[in-house]
Amino acid sequence: MLKLKGTGIAIVTPFKKDGSIDYNALENLINFWIKGDVEYLVVMGTTGESVTLSAEEKKALLAFTAENIHGRVPLVVGIGGNNTSEVVQNLETYDLSKVDAVLSVAPYYNKPNQQGYFEHFMAVADASPKPVILYNVPGRTGSNMTAATTLKLANAHKNILGIKEASGNLEQITDIIMNKPEHFQVISGDDALTLPIIASGGTGVISVVANAYPYEFSEMVRFCLADDFESARELHFKLFDFTRFIFLDGNPGGIKAALYKKGLCENTLRAPLAPVNNEVYEKIIRSVEKLG
């Protein structure tokens, strides 16, 4: 089973001012992230504004990202949704030959019960030609997949690699870590909680912050994994204000403001998302200037 220890980046999708995908900026960003020594990249996740991309754009974006990584780091692709049959169809029709794993978000809006979650992810794991990372993010989906359901899935299907846990509930996350099978990986989905999650036995993070600070954040994670929490705390505290600020008025609006300040992409989002408000923008800019 694939090991995805360390820092993955939930990468942005850069857009030109006219709203089209900016592939030149994406190529530069891919090189910036890999030069920053991160462990892997995650394309077409929440931070990548995947729900505003057409089916054709998603396939083109995946192909471009895989081609420009050139096998230098593993690639994870987000394929999920609230229509199980459509998710299964996408898993069967997308070209996943250069992909190492699939990140699949818990169904949103229709709010399934726990049995619904179980049956959905079993179907996803059956259909996926690559290992599957579950993604629990109640703040976006409107309901929580419990630790009991996660553990049931972890033990039920050999193709389920782990979970990106973004519930913000350390008690729930600790329950999963304590009782999971050995192969199952628990990955932080909250930048600010990465240090305590790894301290409890998590294997890393899928990060938003690392879009702008790949080396600093991934170094913090490596210190955690090496049990050097004194060094990890130093970087954690250094990045903490920036981490708070970029989520104050929505993701990926905050991280795109930071990347714009760093000259890496336009501050453009697709509707219904919009750039962060002026007050938050100023906080982010001051934080970027302070960090250097």
Structural class: alpha/beta
Specify Rg, calculated over alpha carbons. 18 Å
Give the low-pLDDT segments. Answer: none
Biggest pleated-sheet summary:
8 strands, parallel, barrel
CATH homologous superfamily caption: Aldolase class I
CATH architecture: Alpha-Beta Barrel
Instruction: Count structural domains.
Output: 1
Please render the helix and strand layout as text.
Blueprint: E1 6-10, H1 23-35, E2 40-43, H2 55-69, E3 75-78, H3 84-93, E4 101-105, H4 114-127, E5 132-136, H5 138-141, H6 147-156, E6 160-165, H7 170-179, E7 185-188, H8 194-199, E8 204-207, H9 214-225, H10 229-245, H11 253-261, H12 278-291
Parallel strand pairs: 1-2, 1-8, 2-3, 3-4, 4-5, 5-6, 6-7, 7-8
Helix pairs in contact: 1-2, 3-4, 4-6, 6-7, 9-10, 10-12, 11-12
Overall description:
The chain has 292 residues and is an alpha/beta fold. The protein has one domain: TIM Barrel. The longest helix is centred in the last third of the chain and has 17 residues. The chain is globular. The protein starts with 5 loop residues before the first strand and ends with a helix.
Summarize the structure.
With 292 residues, this protein is an alpha/beta fold.
Summary tags:
alpha/beta; 8 strands; TIM Barrel; globular; 292 residues
